[in-house]
Design brief:
Chain A is α+β, with helices and mostly antiparallel strands. Chain A has one domain: Alpha-Beta Plaits (2-Layer Sandwich), CATH 3.30.70. Chain A is built from seven helices and eleven strands. Chain A has a three-stranded mixed sheet. Chain A has a two-stranded antiparallel sheet with strand order 2-3. In chain A, strands 4-5 form a two-stranded antiparallel sheet. By secondary structure, chain B is mainly α. In chain B, helix 2 packs antiparallel against helix 3, helix 4 crosses helix 5 and helix 5 runs antiparallel to helix 6. The chains are: A alpha+beta, B mainly alpha. At the A-B interface, strand 4, strand 5, helix 2 and helix 3 of A face helix 3, helix 7, strand 1 and helix 8 of B.
């Protein structure tokens, strides 16, 4: 089993709801607290498991804003686990989730250096490395209703731009979506084989306007009058 | 990468210490130049002990949670950082027993001590290689993921080590020209390694903002990083040296680490007991410190692509 997320860059509206929902759930979760520094001051900062960047792709007029959420990609070849000297960083055999044992971490930062995706952040208050747990304390909780057994970010997304599932199974909902939409990995050339997949924006044709009726002389006069007359 | 003072001090000091004791053992083992006196070997041992120990102690200063540092010996199978720690700790008993043998030997180090010294030599060499591999194994930083990185760590250790050793006891050696030729060879090799490294990392390569986002058929620009102030990521990886400083510092590295020590070999040849070798040794240590600072400052982590960098 390879549990992970599929992020739809076509529908993500960049609202940061996934990041705040993540912070809310995980502040008291297995790797909580996730500390804020100077939260109400002039230079607020802190630990986040999920960050959303905003990019412009292409040049005007053929350009597009793409909102880009990123959390741990739970790589198959997780170098962050390989370099860890204490054994605090682990990749679970049963579901592929990458976790940090807060009782073993010595805060050397080497795993953060080894991660290309910026998924790991040191918590200065505890001196340990923190990262996305894929809400491991939610997704297996049988006290919750079945539809609630998903990461907090997935449940919070108002645009349904986040999907959670087993990416090892090509017949699963996420597997089918990735296949149908041409899902891809970030920085494949580094060989980390990230589990999380990104769905590219759908390419939509411009809406044709050639067949629309041309405005009549009366319409043009009306339009001109509307512009000139100040009500 | 943000140059961390503790790591620079650690790698320069312990590198010089390991280089010093490795060469002292080598000269003792093979009787090069007639060998050093018992006193010089002991002084070299004490200096190496202080340099290595100060270095290792300062390396723990960059840990955010040092109470778990003891756990770092247990992932030997996969982690170069763990291997470095294990080899560094294993080195100590062999090193100290060798020094005991020198002390008891009364001018002629006993064979058992030489054998232990040989093992200490190999462990020191392996520790230095492991230090280099901690950096060279990170695919995220193309300036580090380079075969010359561990080679450079070894070359700088031998360079600073030989100059310290000769500063302590050059006047005891026979065949002075050959000995200085040996030092010159180490200096030249280290300089070639560093020059080749600078040449290699100057060529563009590695991931770009296009592969980082997956949009490979159009230009990509960051509009917003999504946070108003610095984060752990920008603080740790965002450092960029001031424009124009890097070429000046590189010139400083070549001058202090290689050119001054090389030139100082001539006054040292004329008068072996003079301070010329000390000038060379201190200059090489300053050069190595500058070199190590640049090693960090020039490293561009790929996570910068998600904070506005177009390439690494």
């Amino acid at each position: 089993m390879k549990l992970g997320l599929v992020i739809d860059l076509d529908t993500c509206v960049g609202c940061h709801a996934c990041a705040t929902a993540c912070k809310e759930w995980n502040a008291s979760g297995v790797t909580g607290p996730i500390t804020d520094y100077d939260p109400y001051g002039a230079e607020p900062s802190g630990v986040w498991f999920n960050r959303i960047r905003h990019f412009e792709v292409g040049d005007y007029p053929d350009n597009k804003t793409v909102n880009f959420p990123m959390s741990c990609l739970h790589c198959e070849n997780a170098e962050c686990v390989t370099v860890c000297p204490t054994g605090a960083s682990i990749k679970r055999e049963e579901d592929g989730i990458v976790l940090v044992d807060q009782d073993k971490c010595m805060g050397c930062n080497l795993c953060a250096w080894a991660c290309p995706y910026g998924a790991r952040e040191l918590d200065e208050a505890t001196g340990t490395m923190k990262k996305c747990t894929l809400c491991v304390d939610r997704i297996y909780d049988e006290e919750l209703e079945e539809r609630e057994r998903q990461p907090a970010c997935v449940l919070a997304c108002p645009a349904h731009a986040r999907m959670f599932g087993d990416l090892d199974d090509p017949e699963s909902a996420v597997g089918e979506t990735v296949r149908a939409r041409g899902g891809y990995s970030l920085m494949p050339e580094l060989g980390y084989e990230p589990t999380n997949q990104y769905l590219p924006p759908r390419s939509s044709r411009p809406i044709p306007t050639d067949d629309l009726p041309k405005p009549s002389a009366r319409d043009k006069v009306k339009e001109w009058t509307n512009k000139v007359v100040n009500r | 990468m943000k140059p961390a003072f503790s790591v620079i001090l650690f790698t320069v000091a312990s590198g010089a210490g390991f280089g010093l004791i490795m060469l002292a053992i080598l000269f003792d083992l093979f009787g090069l130049g007639g060998g050093f006196s018992r006193e010089t070997l002991l002084v070299a041992g004490v200096v190496a002990f202080v340099l290595i120990s100060v270095g290792l102690a300062s390396s723990t200063a960059h840990l955010a949670n040092p109470k778990n540092a003891w756990r770092s010996f247990f992932r030997f199978k996969t982690s170069w950082l763990s291997r470095e720690g294990v080899f560094a700790v294993l080195f100590y008993p062999f090193f100290l027993l060798y020094l005991l043998g020198v002390y008891l030997g009364d001018g002629q180090t006993p064979a058992w001590a030489l054998a232990l010294g040989g093992i200490a030599f190999l462990l020191a060499l392996t520790t230095l290689f492991a230090t280099g591999m901690i950096y060279a194994s990170l695919k995220t930083i193309r300036q580090w993921s380079n075969p010359l990185v561990p080679v450079n760590y070894l070359a700088m250790a031998f360079l600073t080590g030989v100059l310290l050793l000769f500063a302590l006891g050059l006047d005891e050696l026979a065949g002075l020209k050959g000995m200085l030729g040996f030092a010159a060879a180490l200096i030249v090799v280290a300089a070639i390694v560093k020059a080749t490294y600078y040449f290699w990392i100057a060529r563009p390569g590695g991931p770009t903002i296009n592969t980082a986002t997956g949009f490979t058929r159009a230009g990509v620009r960051i509009l917003d990083q999504g946070h108003g102030h610095d984060t752990f990521l920008t603080h740790e990886f965002g450092y960029q040296p001031p424009a124009g400083l890097t070429p000046m510092l590189k010139a400083g590295v070549f001058l202090l680490a290689y050119i001054v020590p090389l030139v100082m070999l001539w006054p040292a040849a004329a008068e072996p007991g003079s301070g010329a070798m000390w000038v060379a040794a201190v200059s090489s240590l300053l050069g190595a410190g500058t070199e190590r600072w640049l090693f960090f400052a020039e490293a561009r982590h790929v996570v910068n692509l998600y904070h506005g960098a177009q390439a690494t």
